[in-house]
Design a protein that fits this description.
This protein is mainly β. Helix content is 8%, strand content 48%.
Length: 277
């Protein structure tokens, strides 16, 4: 009897969360990479309902992975030049000034206050650095890890990273910004967990994994390490400001859905979306 009551309660809670997600309006905008022609890419924004598409930058050879900081207004992105050199660019809030800040590196994320950004080196070492925009200096924080992607927590205390393991797959780590060390979150042989992002309350990591065959989104409770599988097939997740919806790349399109995988809507052709306020 107690087991039956518990199951009913859990179903009611799940239904309540689903209803909240269904009725919560989508806010903010989605930044993504669009393409006018081969080797011609630009940054664009669009409303989460698919309206209001706006072009933000001129064309670059192979632009990828835009990043945005609410506090400072910086937009960062990586461009692959025709000679395959990686370049990091910054675009100011008004969109009238673009500057190249680094070569041989890929931008990963901004600090919450917008004073620093993370980048990885585009070489065999794949090291992770913190770059100070004021001092124009960088400090390595990855020790001997080969980092493939990184994301800064909203409270600024942790950095989530996907790291190349000895078997060629990616595992997840947390790197403290407060000298608390490095914590390995996953150790899964022959399974990839990569491109992690924190939820807006810093309680979960959202990333994609090939644990189930194809690339799917997965959620991990940071405290308990319990996993949730919403059955969303895609790459590069980005959560909405209210934490109720997710944008991701499926094929060559930008897609949004509820965090439970329902109400999937293909917005526009494009790549590597991020959701901003």
């Amino acid at each position: 009897m107690k087991r039956t009551v518990l199951i009913i309660v859990m179903l009611l809670i799940a239904a309540s969360l689903s209803a909240q997600s269904e009725t919560t309006p989508m806010t903010g905008k989605i930044l993504y990479i669009d393409s006018a022609a081969p080797d011609s890419h630009y940054l664009a924004s669009i409303n989460p309902d698919g309206t209001g598409k706006t072009r933000l930058t001129p064309s670059f050879n192979n632009m990828m992975f835009p990043r945005f900081n609410e506090a400072a207004g910086w937009i960062g992105f990586t461009n692959k030049a025709p000679d395959m050199t990686s370049e990091i660019y910054l675009l100011n809030r008004s969109g009238d000034r673009i500057k190249k800040v680094l070569t041989g590196a890929a931008i990963e994320d901004f600090s919450p206050d917008g004073k620093f950004f993370l980048y990885t080196t585009c070489d065999g070492k794949a090291e992770l650095f913190v770059y100070s925009l004021d001092r124009k200096r960088a400090n390595k924080i990855s020790q001997n890890l080969k980092v493939t992607a990184a994301n800064w927590s909203k409270n600024g205390e942790w950095i989530a990273a996907s790291v190349l393991a000895e078997d060629g797959t990616n595992d997840l780590y947390l790197i403290s910004t407060l000298a608390q060390g490095i914590i390995r979150m996953t150790d899964t042989k022959k399974v990839n967990e990569t491109f992690p992002v924190f939820t807006n309350d810093d309680k979960y990591l959202v990333y994609f994994t090939d644990r189930y065959g194809s690339n799917e989104l997965e959620y991990m409770d940071i405290e308990t390490k319990q996993l949730q599988r919403p059955n969303i097939v895609g790459l590069f997740p980005a959560l909405s400001p209210e934490n109720k919806h997710v944008a991701f790349q499926a094929g060559e399109s930008v897609v949004v859905s509820r965090i439970d995988g329902l109400d999937i809507n293909v917005l526009v052709p494009g790549r590597t979306p991020i959701w901003i306020k």
